[in-house]
Amino acid sequence: CEAAALASGADMSAWAAALAGGAAALASAPPTHTGLPPSRLAAARAKERARVTPGRVRWAFEALVGRCRASLALASRDSTLEDARDAIALCPLAPGGWEALRDAAEAEGGIG
Q1: Which residues have C-beta within 8 Å of that of residue 69, sequence separation ≥ 6?
Q2: How do residues 6-51 score in pLDDT, each as one tens digit?
Q3: Long-range residue pairs from 23-32, CB within 8 A, at least 24 positions apart, any chain
């Protein structure tokens, strides 16, 4: 059954890592605002940040990504994948969550 194969940890890590590359590239590509005055450019950047990581969940997203990175730095992989997946569930357009998932999957040995 394909659902059982996708549910396994190694397959899920490989799948998430494959998606991370494409999604992070799309999410991290800054919008092109050529020719805007500085005041409009600042407003456009703030609007894009609010679109990628809404203010009402930004603190939780940043906490999950931070906890994931801290666990990796301390070589404590207790909940790194879960934290990264939760961060992506909150803000799927933010590249920080995908980067944390990639790093956690590499630490687990899920990516060659």
Answers
A1: 100, 103
A2: 344 444 445 445 544 544 444 455 556 567 788 888 888 888 777 7
A3: 23/92, 23/93, 23/95, 23/98, 24/95, 24/98, 24/99, 24/102, 26/93, 27/52, 27/93, 27/94, 27/95, 27/98, 28/95
